[in-house]
Design brief:
The protein is an alpha+beta fold. 28% of the residues lie in helices and 19% in strands. The chain is globular and about 80 Å long.
């Protein structure tokens, strides 16, 4: 690739202001190239940034790009998870093009493609956290009246240790007006109405793309690629239009089994879909059944956010092999109020082969990895939420605060082991607030910041805004 800029070249916002010195070429794509650069001549001189410089021909294709970028710079980022444009820059000897600077992505972040190709293998906790972060931060974007327009593999990075995300290529972001433009999305992530040419990008089409991305992250497969995709011999534009636009069908549609995943071709979907609790499966079903036809039936970011938090809290470890499993309090509860036969009837609507059915129905009783019967750890019910109290469980502000302030930066409580008696576990108060504990014998105690209360069946903890009850 012929680089647009040279190492040591200076670009500036205005001719009289400090500039940025190009240091290193990082990569390129269809729009332009990205470089590592550093700020010159200011208090923060030397601060590394990423510099994106556009191809002149791309600027001719997208005449509204500068306006979008200027609006983005003026509004500022929706959150710190966006590698947001900070300012536009020009070069004196390159009048036909321009670029912008943004925060530099740290090396600890990897792409979603690294997950799908198994170059990165995060824990389920980190993976679910990444899904939550995406839903939460796209909600912040949409709340400002913008749509992203191109949610896909290439624009999202995550830390496989923590699940923290970074969202890049924010020059795609535009006002949420549903109008067409040079950016309609990425193939296989675009909503059906965009594929059919009936609509432009909007918050509703973003919601479809977000659901596809989350399905890929959790199931490692595309939600519309089943038996129909396997029968395609020439994957040309007409075939793609039928599969993703005019005749889309969810691979686990409860009313139509004609597009089920095929053993040998779609093994990821067959193996991973049964692992997830029903409340997560239901969200995907809604977006990829009713939501295929009606954009306003798609799951909202806030619903993904609350349910992915619930999924994160449901993780517990197999006591034999340490594999992460999900606690599903609804697993044995039938849709009509408790009839197990109705549970099996409901499941058969999803799986065409008996082995997949047995795997799904048994996942609530045995470990998916080693088939050992589950031995559940203590768990805490906080209002309608259930948090599994594993050896490494931490509680965060959204657990104890009725206002639901979502952040994993500082825990407010953590499960700890007694230093003299390893059979005894407690919950340490890491917040700045006093708690009150009530045990089953009627004993009432204050739990000051820094103190630990022993976990016991029936223990109630008053955190202020919310109340928790420990169950074994």
């Amino acid at each position: 690739m012929n680089q647009l800029l040279n190492s040591g070249e200076i670009v500036q916002m205005q001719p009289t202001e400090p500039g940025y010195e190009v240091e290193e070429f990082l990569g390129g794509g269809g729009q332009g190239e990205v470089y590592r650069a550093r700020l010159l001549g200011a208090q923060s001189a030397g601060t590394p940034v990423a510099l994106k410089w556009f191809f002149p021909h791309y600027l001719r294709q997208d005449p509204h790009l500068r306006t979008r970028l200027e609006r983005a710079v003026d509004n500022g980022p929706p959150s710190d998870r966006f590698l947001w444009p900070q300012e536009l820059v020009v070069a004196a000897d390159r009048p036909s093009s321009f670029g912008y600077v943004m925060p530099l992505r740290e090396d600890r972040f990897v792409g979603i493609t690294d997950l799908v190709t198994r170059r990165a293998e995060p824990t389920l906790r980190a993976l679910v956290t990444a899904g939550f972060e995406l839903a939460h931060n796209y909600l912040q974007l949409h709340a400002k009246g913008f749509c992203y327009r191109d949610i896909s593999f290439g624009n999202v990075f995550f830390d496989p240790q923590s699940g923290e995300v970074r969202i890049c290529d924010n020059d795609n972001v535009s006002v949420d007006d549903g109008q067409g433009g040079s950016i309609g999305g990425t193939a296989r992530f675009m909503a059906p109405e965009i594929v059919r040419g009936e609509a432009g990008p909007s918050t509703e089409t973003d919601l479809f793309s977000l659901a596809v991305l989350l399905f890929y992250m959790l199931v490692n497969h595309h939600p519309l690629e089943g038996a129909k995709e396997a029968r395609i011999r020439c994957f040309d534009l007409p075939a793609m239009t039928r599969l993703y636009g005019t005749d889309p069908l969810f691979i686990f549609d409860p009313d139509d089994i004609s597009n089920r995943p095929q053993p040998g071709s779609h093994d990821n979907a067959l193996a991973l879909w049964p692992l997830y609790p029903r409340f997560v499966q239901t969200l995907f079903m809604r977006t990829f059944t009713d939501g295929l036809r009606d954009p306003y039936s798609r799951v909202r970011e806030s619903q993904w956010r609350s349910n992915l938090i619930r999924l994160r809290d449901s993780i517990f470890y197999c006591q034999r092999c340490d594999a992460e499993n999900f606690y599903d309090q609804d697993a044995l509860r039938a849709s009509d109020g408790g009839n197990p036969s109705r549970r099996v009837e409901w499941l058969t609507r999803f799986f065409s082969d008996r082995d997949a059915l047995r795997a799904s129905d048994g996942s609530s009783a045995a470990c998916w990895s080693c088939a050992s019967p589950h031995r559940l750890p203590p768990r805490m019910r906080i209002d309608s939420d259930v948090v599994m109290l594993n050896h490494d469980t931490r509680l965060y502000p959204h657990h104890l605060d009725a206002e639901r302030s979502y952040s994993f930066a500082e825990p407010v409580a953590e499960v700890t082991q007694h230093p003299q008696n390893p059979q005894v576990w407690g919950l340490r108060n890491r917040s700045a607030q006093r708690w009150t504990s009530h045990d089953v014998n009627g004993q009432v105690n204050d739990v000051e910041p820094g103190q630990t209360v022993t976990l016991s069946p029936g223990l109630r903890l008053l955190f202020g805004g919310r109340e928790g009850e420990v169950r074994f």
